[in-house]
């Protein structure tokens, strides 16, 4: 007999039962809705042999396992969140059964309603800006051969290089601030996340801005246009938008 | 108003905005993990996952992974094969090991190796 838990993807309202019925959860388990006091929890069964405490500690270190669960989680959250107001849960939130799901909704009911009110009719966009390499100005060349020997000239060049690097990184900070401030004006809320490491982005240009923006559904196109516009007039950075998706970064309990 | 249709870029699984020329690739694993691992509402589950383990995992992933395929392309496959085969993974594993050890020390209150000997 396999023991099961209930994997909780999201809590929301206005979630369409047909969408849930036609979407699969993790490992082809059917999705279900657990309803309580006007809120709906999107859940599916998971086998505790894989999702129990000890198994999770082991499995979360397995990148393929993690990727499958993460993509499955994201797929469900996006599908049910496309037409409804939802607050996504953190990955691997697992309860013992539907009664326990209802208990949690009961405990957090008012906070959850506040969260859903804040994100109602809004979606999240991600905007990442990457510094364009080699844009920094060459800087004044030091006069060569003026007196002092090659050692001094070498030190002088080193100093200039360091100064240029400093200028470039100051400029990157400035560009990131400007882009974020500009896009925040087109959004209900904006958050700056930690820029991703180049080893992680797989790109050589450093990421200078990793922003998340909460945007009214009907302003989505205008927001995308604002990103394209600021990308077009910013020569020091490449600015890319992704989205929209459910408000992962803005559905947080106070 | 929630009834209005989504903007054109929101077709399910159309990750690349249409206005972007030579647009970005579909969501990388890093992007997905950033969303689902680091975000979302935290409630106490009945299955308790040690957050410290997840933090370490996050450190690892933040540093390393683009996607499984991409990582394999780059020759990073420590999660499947011998980690000793890959230098950067080896360094990272070592770093992780040290972090774990340090956390264990701190947790057991035995971080008493003479305090700040930073130099």
Topology, element by element:
The complex is a heterodimer of chains A (254) and B (119).
Chain A: E1 4-13, H1 17-21, E2 31-36, E3 39-47, H2 48-51, H3 53-59, H4 63-81, E4 85-88, E5 94-95, H5 98-119, E6 122-131, H6 150-185, E7 189-193, H7 198-201, E8 207-216, H8 220-233, E9 237-245
Antiparallel strand pairs in A: 1-3, 1-4, 1-5, 2-3, 6-8, 6-9, 7-8
Chain B: H1 29-38, H2 51-64, H3 68-73, H4 87-107
Helix pairs in contact in B: 1-2, 2-4
Secondary structure class of chain A reads: alpha+beta
State the share of residues found in helices of chain A, binned by percent.
40-55%
Distance between the termini of chain A: 40 Å
Global Rg of chain A: 24 Å
Number of strands of chain A: 9
Spatial gap, N to C terminus of chain B? 59 Å
Mean pLDDT score of chain A? 89
Question: What does the model show?
Answer:
Chain A has 254 residues and is α+β, with helices and mostly antiparallel strands. Chain A has helices at residues 17-21, 48-51, 53-59, 63-81, 98-119, 150-185, 198-201, 220-233; strands at residues 4-13, 31-36, 39-47, 85-88, 94-95, 122-131, 189-193, 207-216, 237-245. In chain A, the strands form two sheets. In chain A, strands 1, 2, 3, 4 and 5 form a five-stranded antiparallel sheet that branches. By secondary structure, chain B is mainly alpha-helical. Chain B has helices spanning 29-38, 51-64, 68-73, 87-107. The longest helix of chain B has 21 residues, at 87-107. The relative contact order of chain B is 0.08. The model of chain B is unreliable at 1-25, 74-87 and 113-119 (pLDDT under 50).
């Amino acid at each position: 007999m396999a023991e099961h838990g209930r994997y909780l993807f999201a809590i929301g309202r206005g979630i369409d039962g047909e969408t849930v019925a036609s979407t699969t959860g993790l490992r082809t388990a059917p999705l279900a809705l657990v309803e309580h006091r006007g809120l709906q929890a999107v859940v599916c069964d998971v086998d505790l042999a894989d999702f129990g405490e000890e198994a999770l500690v082991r499995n979360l270190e397995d990148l393929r396992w993690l990727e499958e669960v993460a993509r499955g989680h994201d797929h469900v959250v996006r599908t049910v969140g496309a037409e409804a107001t939802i607050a996504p849960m953190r990955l691997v939130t697992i309860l013992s059964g539907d009664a326990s799901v209802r208990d949690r909704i009961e405990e957090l009911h008012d906070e959850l309603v506040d969260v859903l009110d804040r994100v109602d009719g809004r979606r999240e966009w991600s905007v990442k800006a990457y510094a364009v390499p080699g844009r920094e100005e060459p800087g004044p060349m030091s006069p060569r051969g003026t007196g002092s020997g090659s050692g001094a000239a070498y030190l002088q060049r080193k100093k200039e290089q360091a100064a240029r690097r400093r200028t470039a990184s100051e400029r990157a900070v400035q560009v990131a601030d400007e882009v974020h401030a500009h896009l925040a004006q087109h959004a209900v809320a904006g958050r700056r996340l930690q820029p991703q490491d180049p080893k992680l982005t797989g790109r050589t240009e450093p990421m200078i801005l990793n922003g998340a923006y909460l945007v009214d559904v009907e302003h989505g196109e205008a927001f995308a246009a604002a990103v394209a516009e600021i990308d077009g007039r910013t020569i020091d950075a490449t600015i890319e938008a992704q989205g929209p998706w459910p408000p992962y970064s803005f559905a947080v309990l106070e | 108003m929630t009834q209005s249709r989504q903007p054109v870029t929101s077709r399910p699984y159309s990750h690349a905005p249409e206005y972007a020329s030579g647009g970005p690739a579909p969501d990388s694993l890093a992007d997905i993990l950033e969303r689902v691992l680091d975000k979302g509402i935290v409630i106490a589950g009945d299955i308790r996952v040690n957050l410290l383990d997840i933090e370490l995992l996050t450190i690892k992933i933040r540093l390393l992974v683009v996607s499984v395929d991409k990582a394999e392309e780059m020759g990073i496959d420590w999660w499947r094969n011998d980690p000793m085969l890959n230098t950067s993974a080896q360094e990272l594993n070592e770093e992780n090991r040290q972090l774990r050890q340090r956390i264990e020390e701190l947790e057991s209150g035995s971080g008493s190796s003479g305090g700040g000997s930073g130099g």
